[in-house]
Every structure is written in C-alpha cells, then in structure tokens.
Amino acid sequence: MAIPSVFLKLHDADSVVLARLTAPAGSLWSPSDGAPAVVARERIEMGHKMAIRPIAQGETIYKFGQPMGFATAPIQAGDWVHSHNVDMVELTRDYQFCTGVKELPPANEVRTFQGYRRADGRAATRNYIAVVSTVNCSATSSRYIVNAFDQSILKDFPNIDGVIALTHKGGCSFEYGGSDHRQLARTLAGYARHANIGAYLLLGLGCETGQASFLDEQFHLVQLGNSGATAKKPLIMNIQEVGGVAKTVRRGIEALHELLPEVNNVQRVPIPVSEIILGTNCGGSDGYSGVSANPALGIASDLLVAQGGTSILAEIPEIYGGEHLLTRRAVSKKVGEKLIERIHWWEEYAGKFGATIDNNPSVGNKAGGLTTIFEKSLGAIAKGGTAPLRAVYEYAEPVTEKGFVIMDTPGNDPTSVTGIVAGGANVVVFTTGRGSCFGSKPTPTIKVSTNSLTYSRMEDDMDMNAGTILDGEKSVEEVGREIFEKIISVASGEKTKSEVQGIGDEEFAPWVPGPIF
C-alpha cells in the first residue's frame, strides 16, 4: 500500500493544504500536475494548513474550494496559515434557493432495528424513567429521588435503562408566557414525551414562573406507556404543596417504585430504520473534522434518509459562512429563507453583546487547526450529507418532517444536543477531533474520532475511528457505511462507550437566550 502524503489538498481551487501529520520544516508537498514541490518553511502541526502558492495581503484564502478567510499579511508558499496571518472579513454570500436539490436514490433494501414500540406508535431506542425538574429549586429533590434507584433496585427490572433526573439552572425570573418561558417549556415537554422516556414525574417547587401545570396544559402531556397501554395523565408534584423536601422525596420514590413493573413490561421488536431520528453534532473539532469524520457522517446521514429516516443538522453558528451551500439544497424558497432568517438572528444576537460569530472557534478548535468560523462551518456542514433540505426548526421544536432537516441550536455541545433530543432524536452521532467525552441520556450518543491519535489515546471514550480515512486504510464511503451500521446496532440496544461509563446525566442543558430578571 502506498504511503499517504503528509499533506492533503482537499479541492483543486484551494490555496492551502492540510497537514495529515505534523510536518517538520523542509517537508514537501508535490502537486499532482508535476509542478515543482512546495517546501514547508516552518513546522506545520497536524491538522494545520500550509500555503501552496503566494497569497497577497487581503486576498481570499480557499479551503474545500470555498472562502475560509482573508490574508492579513503577505503569505509565501510553504508558510503556516493560521490566526496570525488570517482573519474573517464579511463577505457577500450568493443565496440561491432550490438550485442544488438532488433526490437520493431509494435504498436497495428496507432495513430494520430492534426497538421499543410505544403506545402512541413512536419508536424508542432506550427505556428510561425520568424526574423532570421544572425549576432549579427542585433540582436537589429530583436528584434525591433518582439516587434511590441504584442497580440493587433496577437489577430486577432489566428492560429499564435507568432512572434519570433532568435538572437545570433556570425555570424562573423570566416573563410568564414569554419567549424564554415557551422555549424552556418546549424543551422540558420534549423530554417528558420523548419516546425513550417510558414514564416520568414532573417536580416543581410551587411558586416558580415555569409551572408544571403550564407544561401539562400547553403540551397535553400524558404518560407515554408501551404498546397497548392506556394513556395516563402525568405525575405532578410541587414541594411546597407536598410539605417540604423530605416528604416530597419520600412520595416521589414511592410513586416511581409503582411505575417500575409497567415500564419494564416491554420487549424490543423489529422496527423500520425509517423511524430513526438521528441527531448530528460535532465538538472539540479540529482541522480533520471536515475531512474525515464529518463527511463520513454525511454518508451515513444520506443512507438513513434513503431509508426514509430523519437526520438533524444543528449548531447554526457553525453553519455560518456556509449557509449559502444549504439554501441551494432547500426544497422550497420558504425553507431556505427560514435558514437565512436564523443566521440573521444570530448576527443580531451576537451584536447585542459586542461579539461576533467568529468568536465561536474555541481555543481547542484553533489548537487543532481551525482558524475561522467559515472554515469550521464548511467542515461542519459535511455532517448533513447531500440530501435535500426539507425543513428548518427552532430550538427543541418537535421534528416531524422526514429526511434531512436543520434545527437552530447554539454551538455549545450540551445545549445543542439538548435541543436535538427534545426535538425527538432517538440516536445521536457526535464527531470530535480533540476528544469530547459526551453522553446525552435518554438518547445514546455514538462518538466518532476524526483522527487515529485521539482514538488510540481515548479508546475508552471513542466508539469509532474515522482517522482510518487519513491513514489511507479506508475511504470516506466505507467509514460512512460503518457509521450507518453502528447507528442501527446502537438503536437496537448496543451500549455506547458513554453509556458503559454512565455519562449523560449532567449534559441536560436547556437554552434560554434571554435576560434573567
């Protein structure tokens, strides 16, 4: 097998190449057209970029065949290209609508997974009981209730994956019925009625703005139950009404004990893969994310969509600068314009705090080779494959459309995945270059490393290694198919690395963007 070059050129129009491994000064990149080799004038760290031709100050720099930034100083061929000589300057995007819609060919065979069928007909991949805290004031009580259900209790109920407390820092000090209240309520309701929650208790303090009764009335909540079960009203407790923390904890434990046999009374059955709702997210991204793991996940996303399933691309701030590529895939101008409207909302939102969206790439992102949000976005979009864009949802909105869709979430990982899961995602695939240790109960999270070094260093946390693409061992298509098969296996009950380690209780992080009064 030929040894891969230390540098990768990703598109014919690019003015930079990517270092597959750390390249010492003097390393060579040889163009495929036989032109003279470019010599690295300095050390280029793995995941970082080297110029392959002179770039004038103010000139656009291209990666993935798209603008990723502008030179702030003259750059010579062989120079390291990063934050010290690149900046993001506002550019005009060509927002075309519906011009790049290409329907995917239908799947050759109908695939199934082994899932739980709920009473309302939806498909579940896990089976949890939840205590949903309406306000931070009931968070500790929620934890006390959940702590009573350790393995010594659950061992007698093998079909229950766990009892979880969905706690957060908000629930009060905002306008009753206002946008923040509605968004938090939509998120909490999305978890309460999630297919992976077999039963739940709503627990409040009693005097908070975010009342449990508001959730019940606005979202018509019922206990989900298993196939054939009769729908029941939700359990609601308020600490002030019950008579304090100790009494509430005792009553909550008693109530959940009564639910255990019914929630456990479920078996996995064959369910079409079309009922998988996939959430995609990236965190701890590096310069390889857009080359290995993200495009491979895009292949898996297309395979799922071809089966009739749903794939959610999120993190709108990490679409910024590449959204014009997605508007072309919109099935209607209305869908494309909704995406642009969300982009403009984020520009205005960042401006209120004297920030710009280019503040998004983190310290770790930049250490891993990502320079601007444009570059990060071009790689992040690859998670969405090539399928037509059928809908754009606001944060935690129920996802009802089949196919490829977008949800407006922040780039912050726990906050983003919380919105995706509230929208109904029953499997999440999370790509990472630096090594994010993430879980998201009640939905299993498959973590895919972008490079072999991170995978080998964090093998207990990474489910899959897309670094085999960079190593020349496998193609993007091959790894994409492996991710698709892993999605089916995990949906059928295979435990992810984060589940094995019990990760996912602390990552529930509802997004409330407004002020606290």
Question: Helicity level, as a percent range?
Answer: 25-40%
Alpha-carbon distance between the two ends:
64 Å
| Poorly predicted sequence stretches spanning 5 or more consecutive residues | none
Gyration radius from CA atoms, angstroms:
24 Å
Q: Structural class of the secondary elements?
A: alpha/beta
Profile the largest sheet: 7 strands, parallel
DSSP strand (E) fraction?
15-25%
Q: How would you describe what is shown here?
A:
This protein has helices at residues 139-147, 151-154, 179-192, 212-219, 239-242, 245-264, 293-306, 323-327, 333-352, 363-367, 373-380, 413-422, 452-457, 467-470, 476-491, 497-500, and strands at 7-8, 16-19, 28-29, 38-39, 49-51, 60-63, 66-71, 80-81, 86-87, 112-117, 123-124, 128-133, 162-166, 197-204, 235-238, 269-272, 277-282, 310-313, 389-393, 403-407, 427-432, 445-449, 464-465. A 7-stranded parallel sheet has the order 19-20-18-17-21-22-23, sandwiched between helices. A 4-stranded antiparallel sheet has the order 1-2-5-8, with no helix packed on it. A 4-stranded parallel sheet has the order 13-12-14-15, with helices on both faces. 29% of the residues lie in helices and 18% in strands. The model has no long low-confidence stretch (mean pLDDT 94). The longest helix is centred in the middle third of the chain and has 20 residues, at 245-264. It is globular and about 80 Å long. Strand 14 (197-204), helix 4 and strand 15 (235-238) form a beta-alpha-beta unit. Helix 1 (139-147) crosses helix 6 (245-264) and helix 3 (179-192) crosses helix 4. With 517 residues, the chain is an alpha/beta fold. The chain contains 16 helices and 23 strands.
